[in-house]
């Protein structure tokens, strides 16, 4: 009887731990999704201000909302609602918190950030400004997309359409998605939407940039969220922040080093430059070694925790 009660207490503790883990995990992932959508929306605004096109769906919504004299947020929400109904009927597994956040927020956030842009930036559009807007827009748009897609909290309504069609007509997803983007680009053109060269870039060539953010930022964030959700302590929170900071610093440092290398490689090295390259390489090696030790320590801690739980069970 005593053993039975102890087992019940252990099961209740585990259930409580699981509920706590799920709540914290979903809460943090939802917050990250919210941030990702905000970053995506900021990127869309920079692309809009560059005047060289936006993603097909937003381009279409801007065109028709302007023609109908409706706020972009309201029109985009209406379009998303139509797509949401289709998803709900044919594949509701794709619906999640991220779906709702994306569906409701993106259009309105583009409006808000566009107003902020107009208030803060008073520069006439010229080639230099266009380039800056495009670069900032692509980086932010792809980063935001990576953040919310990495969380597995549901697909954006527009992104869910191609998988549904693909599963029903037995054609490869990439062909369906390409056709979907082309159709929406044509509709956007008909509605005098924000279609341009960047529309094609975002639709067909943003994948590598999104994958880059997935590897260097988003997956790291998801890992730290899971780790913190399992053991929600101040120490783990600090470890996650520090870990993300290290990764971000490493990404920036590597990008800088590679850029410098390319520039110098074209013109040759002086003796001093060779010593500098050697120094930078050694520093990079030390950083990688530090990261390796950090990962080994983390793996050891995880194995220890698994062993402890197995002994308790």
UniProtKB/TrEMBL annotation:
Pfam families linked to this entry: DUF6198
Organism domain of life: Bacteria
Parts of the chain that traverse the membrane: 26-48, 68-90, 95-113, 119-141, 182-206
Keyword terms: Membrane, Transmembrane, Transmembrane helix
Coiled-coil region(s): none
PANTHER family assigned: INTEGRAL MEMBRANE PROTEIN, INTEGRAL MEMBRANE PROTEIN-RELATED
Name of this protein: Integral membrane protein
